[in-house]
UniProtKB/TrEMBL annotation:
Designated name of the protein: MICOS complex subunit
Intracellular or extracellular location(s): Mitochondrion inner membrane
Organism: Eeniella nana
Membrane spanning residue stretches: 117-135, 142-164
Quaternary structure (record): Component of the mitochondrial contact site and cristae organizing system (MICOS) complex.
Keywords: Membrane, Mitochondrion, Mitochondrion inner membrane, Transmembrane, Transmembrane helix
Taxonomic superkingdom: Eukaryota
Coiled coil: none
InterPro entries, alphabetized: MIC26/MIC27 (IPR019166), Mic26_fungi (IPR033181)
PANTHER family reported for this sequence: MICOS SUBUNIT MIC26
Pfam families documented for this protein: ApoO (PF09769)
Role of this protein: Component of the MICOS complex, a large protein complex of the mitochondrial inner membrane that plays crucial roles in the maintenance of crista junctions, inner membrane architecture, and formation of contact sites to the outer membrane.
GO BP term (any one): cristae formation
Principal location listed in the UniProt entry: mitochondrion
Length: 239
């Protein structure tokens, strides 16, 4: 029995080795492994795991996170536009205010006559205005609104006449430019008033002439009737 295994095992091993090594491996110096690879090479498809990762990233970009980012972007853009609009409005309003302030200061400077002192005269004008307030403190609302202003204007024209005339001329020009209808009506009223004043003056002079004429005529008549010389000056009576 032992002899059978002893002889059969080498024989079986030889048969197996022969079967496996039917195509002998040549011991060549340079082997051409890819000599028979004549077919087109097709690249391999991506792995399923990579495709799922791409889908997950795309879903996240198109999901709630992307919508929130869009909302924040819109809010940021709206905030930037609003702040820019506020800045432009502030700059425009500031420029308009400073231009108007310069116009007012330049106008006041041009109206003031340098020969008239501003400090004491302004105190006098304020005193005139306050005098009107004191005089009308127990009067009706119309007098309390007009009399102090009239007193202030009278004091203004008395203590600063040149500045008052310049101011009146400037106000007249502004009224003519801004309110032409009111200016024309006011000009007509002033013209009629001046005409009435001139007529009153001329009528006064005519009345004075008439009265003087009748007075002279009456004196002459009395002198003729009494035989007195009324044209001679009266002398003092002697003791």
């Amino acid at each position: 029995m032992f002899n059978i295994f002893r002889v059969g095992l080498p024989v079986a091993s030889s048969v197996v080795m022969y079967t496996c090594l039917k195509n002998p491996v040549l011991n060549e110096g340079k082997r051409n492994f890819y000599a028979n690879n004549t077919a087109d090479i097709i690249p391999g498809s991506p792995q399923e795991e990579g495709s799922e990762l791409v889908k997950l990233v795309a879903k996240r970009e198109n999901g709630s996170g992307s919508a929130l980012q869009k909302q924040f972007k819109r809010l940021r853009l709206w905030t930037d536009e609003y702040l820019e609009a506020v800045r432009r409005c502030y700059i425009e309003k500031s420029d308009a205010y400073f231009r108007k302030e310069r116009q007012v200061t330049d106008t006041i400077t041009s109206l003031h006559d340098k020969t008239e002192l501003l400090w004491p005269n302004s105190i006098y004008i304020l005193t005139g205005f306050m005098t009107g307030l004191v005089l009308t403190r127990k009067r009706n609302i119309l007098l309390r609104a007009t009399v102090p202003l009239a007193c202030g204007l009278v004091a203004f024209s008395a203590f600063m006449p040149a500045t008052f005339n310049k101011t009146a001329s400037w106000l007249s020009g502004v009224e003519e430019h801004k309110l032409p209808d009111v200016y024309r009506k006011q000009a007509k009223i002033i013209e009629k008033t001046e005409d009435l004043v001139q007529r009153s003056e001329s009528l006064k002079q005519e009345n004075e002439k008439i009265v003087s004429k009748y007075y002279q005529k009456t004196r002459k008549t009395i002198g003729d009737m009494t035989g007195l010389t009324v044209d001679e000056p009266v002398t003092d009576k002697k003791d």
